[in-house]
Amino acid sequence: MLFLLIDFPKFNPIALEIGPFAIRWYALAYIGGIVIGWLYARSLLKNERLWGGPAPMSLLQIDDFILWVTLGIILGGRTGYVLFYNLPFFIDHPAAIFRLWEGGMSFHGGFLGCVVAVMWFAYRNGISILSLGDITTAVAPIGLLLGRIANFINGELWGRAADASLPWAMIFPNDPSHLPRHPSQLYEAGMEGILLFTVLAIMIRLGALKRPGMILGSFILIYGLTRIIGEHFREPDVQLGFLWGGLTMGMLLSIPMLLVGSILIVMAVRRGAPKPATSIR
């Protein structure tokens, strides 16, 4: 039944090469996610109707925050990968920690890095941590979508073995076993990117930004759910394999997100939407 397999597209992981300098699709995914997310965040801040009044931060502040969140993503993502996914290797090869171009970033580490960036920036600028978290997570699915597509282009983080009769099963060129596999990168792009962005965008249009923490909590909860579902189709990292109870590292790191997200949503509902200020006549 191998004739049913889809040939893996022959992508070049390098998008642009100028002399000795090469720009990879993975780098462009990060850059594109940050830039498009920044533009979307500005559009949300300009729409006072979504906030029930003036936005809790200025456009200049969100412009300044971009550098902070970028550092949070990169430093947190790399630190998370080192600690969660390949610590023994990096203990033996500490210099490899800084070779980001060789790959190895963790969403959960990047998310924690963003949390630190949000809390620090909000404190220094007198901004609501929850509202800044809302705007940050509202745009996050854009980067997740582009990042998963870059994973697919690179032919990395492929899925678990699938029946060859699965119409969209693929044999990834970098897979030494040459087994038909789920294109789990595309599953994750659909769930973590398109689905999550759509749900949050609808919630925003329905007034969720008026309840600080609602979008933040919903992002954490829904991402945790979609990541756990996606991990059922994704091949575990070879250096880790399956862990306790047949769970993967991605599942274990996502389980606490279900609890945290639920708590934030309940708190946002109980807190209620802030009442618009009334002028004294």
> Roughly what fraction of the amino acids lie in strands?
under 5%
Distance N to C terminus: 79 Å
Tell me about the biggest sheet? 2 strands, antiparallel
Mean pLDDT figure: 90
Kindly name the structural category. mainly alpha
Global Rg: 20 Å
Enumerate the spans where pLDDT stays under 50 for 5 or more consecutive residues.
277-281
Q: Helix coverage percent of residues?
A: 55-70%
By DSSP (H or I, 4+ residues per run), the number of helices equals 9
Number of strands: 2
Could you spell the SSE succession in H and E letters? EEHHHHHHHHH
Sheet with the most strands: spatial strand order: 1-2
Give the overall form: globular
Main location: membrane
Transmembrane segments: 25-45, 65-85, 105-123, 135-153, 186-206, 213-230, 242-269
Subcellular location: Cell membrane
GO molecular function: phosphatidylglycerol-prolipoprotein diacylglyceryl transferase activity
Explain what this protein looks like in three dimensions.
With 281 residues, the chain is mainly alpha-helical. The chain is 59% helix and 3% strand. The chain has 9 helices and 2 strands, in the order ββααααααααα. A two-stranded antiparallel sheet has the order 1-2.
Kindly list the characteristics that best describe this protein:
281 residues, mainly alpha, two-stranded antiparallel sheet, 9 helices, 2 strands, 59% helix, disordered C terminus, lipoprotein, transmembrane, Phosphatidylglycerol--prolipoprotein diacylglyceryl transferase, cell membrane
